[in-house]
Amino acid sequence: MFLKQLEYLIAVIEEDHFGRAAARCNVKQPSLSNGIKQLEFELGVTLFKRGRGQRLYGITEEGERVAYWARLILANCTAMRDNIAEMQDSLSGTIRLGAIPSMSPVLPIILQRIRKAYPLVSVDVRFVGNNELKTSLDNYSIDCAITYIDQSDEMPWCEALPVFEETWSLLVPDSFKFENMSDITWEEAADLPLALLRKSMYERSVIDQTFTAAGRSVVPKIESESILHLMFQTQFTELCTVIPSHYTRMPGLYTGTKALLLKDPIIRKGIGLFWVKSETTIPITKITEEVGRALAKNSELQNFLYHKSTTSAG
Hints:
Elements: H1 3-15, H2 18-24, H3 29-43, E1 48-50, E2 56-59, H4 61-87, E3 93-99, H5 107-117, E4 121-127, H6 130-138, E5 144-148, E6 158-173, E7 183-185, H7 186-189, E8 194-197, H8 202-213, E9 222-224, H9 227-236, E10 240-244, E11 257-263, E12 268-276, H10 283-296, H11 300-305, H12 308-313
Parallel strand pairs: 3-4, 3-5, 7-11, 8-9, 8-10
Antiparallel strand pairs: 1-2, 5-12, 6-10, 6-11, 6-12
């Protein structure tokens, strides 16, 4: 059994196509197919469901189990190489970082710290939902994740490090109607025309629950998975939208818009860094942990994101 065969296996699973998997592994398709067949022969099991013409129809139950161990073996092999490089002061490689979409404006700060501390290390950022983050951490397809700290109960196999606390605001057109306002209640916001995140997203579930607790239900005019798109809706139309308050700092408010702190209640959601618990310290994971702890120390990131406009309103 060779590591390449395990890499081929994971590539086929993630690409769901032998041709694309071969291109990803920089080999010809016959070479990849032979590697998979040799792995099946050595293990004595069929890993993939195949149809006429060897068309791929999914992975077998045995294949799922082998894939689990393959990811674990490959992750530990990478950690070993990184550990040796760290001993020689030449740590390099790629951090596979998963994040919820609302963290997009915050990541430049985190990634800049990583580049300064470890110039030979690169970062592969993947924006996905909470459920996919949990799965990706569990199967070692990402090294660490940034999401809401209250998700830690659903990820007991992970370490969790609180980094900062998020509040939410209502983005409204900068018009005479809102001229003298700095905050607004959830009950009042329910009467406005709204553009909101899709129901499949975690943030939307919290938004709906908060409106319900205020005795109101809302039907948005527009739904999207992109907060930036919703902000454009407010900039160019009459619609209002709910945003993390740090968006007033990064990327900043768009011309023609204004942010009002949502209150009664003020929602405070902790944001944290997650990584898989391990008996040994994995160098690539340790890099992100170090940066996270530095930004959490003395509330540095909190103070940067929630300066005057958001902290004074709270």
